[in-house]
Amino acid sequence: MVELVPLELPGVVFDFEYRTDDNSKLSAGLDYYKNVNESQYSQMEARFGDWSGTNPGDLQKYGGTDIKTFCMSCQFKSVDLDTSNGTAYRFDAVKAWDGLAAYYSNIAGFTPVLPTSVSAAAKAPYLSGFAHNTVQETVKAAYVQFSMEGSFLSRPVKILAGVRYEDTDVLVTAYQNIPTNIQWQQKNNFAILQGSSIQPYQQKASYSNLLPSLDMAMNVTDNIIGRMSFSVTAARPQYSSMYATTSVNAPGNPSYLGTTTTASSGNPALKPLISQNFDVSAEWYYGSNSYISLGYYRKAVQNFIGNGVTNTSLFGLTDPASGKSGTRSGAAVTALQGLNEPVNTNTMFVMTALVDRAGGNVAQATEQYETLTDPAGNTYPDFGTFQAAMFANYPVTGNSTDPLQIFALSQPINNQTANIDGFEFSWQHFFGDTGFGFAASATTVNGDVGLDDAANPYGASQFALEGLSNTYNITGIYEKYGFEARIVYNWRDKYLQQANASQFGGRYAAAYGQWDASVNYELRPNIILSFEALNMNKGHIVQYVRVPTDVINYQELDSRYELGIRYKF
């Protein structure tokens, strides 16, 4: 179950306005508010068997439902698929759960497959995943804005200029089991020891932004208007990227012998996207309802989110296998070198465990190592059985003499910049008073950071701008005698939906076009009849990875028709 509950708390707003005349106005204000986002996630699991599929027939025999086969590939009408391998299955999952639970609960000696860390009865659901995060943003802001209408070179001009300053304090709380220690269990096997209860874990961050803006419009002629604007805008990061829940992984090898111990978390210190925006456009009004406009826009965006790795300690966890001077593992390394013994995962663990149980008495531990005697006084005939006994009975847990464990913490960071620009064109024209007309628009988008789909699929992740594509639409219009009719074609070029979707290749949405139509008729001033036809050309949604032939989703859509009536009281 996943639950996202955004909550906006009341704020305090103070606005001030001063007019010098009918055409000029100075505004200012203060703003204070809090945003709180809370996310809770829990996952319950009950296991009836493992992945080996030992008794696949049990589902149909005891699941309380009939499994029906059907040809999945035969369902598609617009694409030629191989029907020989299109078999799929349908069954009632709820009935299957109830039936299997009842059957397995009556089998003597049936052993459910459960993780060793879970204490649960056979088939009993248990909590297998949990996360609880809150993000609180406290925002203090002030703004000043000036607007005026005047003239320049005897032509009308409108100006709107202002600046906003925002200061944001972030408090992120993660409720999780806090790791308490690292335990070296044997050779290269380590475990993270968790606390017995869920506790809050908090991180704080803050940032501030200065956001100016300027908008100007000028009637160049009686029929042509020129516009120009510049602004700096901010877009806050997604809350899910800021969650502080931190997952630490156990080391894969003693750090003395070389290893990288990893961890992952969100990043409460993420800063918002900052975009410097510039727009310039011209509009020509050559009729009462007809015009043409052309514009250019450019956005320089910084603080895009990528992935970063920093080396840091977490939760005060210490490293029981550092081999550093003054530690048990360091004393063990020195002792092994004094005996001309190789220092590897086996010998280092055994000697460290002996030093640990001897309370730091290196001489005693060395004698036990040489005589193959464990801390309980048991002597073994060879080193293999001796080390096996040490592995099984004498784990080494980090303590205050050990240095802090260093983790390679992977988390989202602000480390990318990109530029976006393009043109916008629109045209609306009506043919006199006939009621007929058309409207058309097009937008081009260019980004300077794309995805290299020819890159090594086993290489590093890539940053690329997502969701950018050219679009256009054209609309036929009729408005007269109570009728309002539209026929529209919308088209969007292919675009990148997700970078690094599969082996660092991109997932794309293929180009898509759709015809729609609508007719409204005003039967009376308060009664309107309507008809709408959507996707008349039966356009389909196609998603692919890297190349168009590697299709991962094909959604066959049909036309939809709606008939309605609206009554105004």
Helix/strand class: mainly beta
Runs in which pLDDT lies below 50 for 5 or more consecutive residues are 1-9, 109-123
Oligomer state equals single chain
Radius of gyration: 34 Å
The percent of residues in helical segments reads 10-25%
Number of strands: 25
What do you see in this structure?
The chain has 569 residues and is mainly beta. Among the domains are: 47-124, no CATH class; 328-397; 437-569. The chain contains 6 helices and 25 strands. The protein has a 19-stranded mixed beta sheet that branches. Strands 19-20-23-24 form a 4-stranded antiparallel beta sheet, with no helix packed on it. The two termini are 43 Å apart. The model is unreliable at 1-9 and 109-123 (pLDDT under 50).
Q: Summarize this, please?
A:
The chain is mainly β and 569 residues long. The chain is 11% helix and 53% strand. α3 packs across α4 and α4 (345-357) packs across α5.
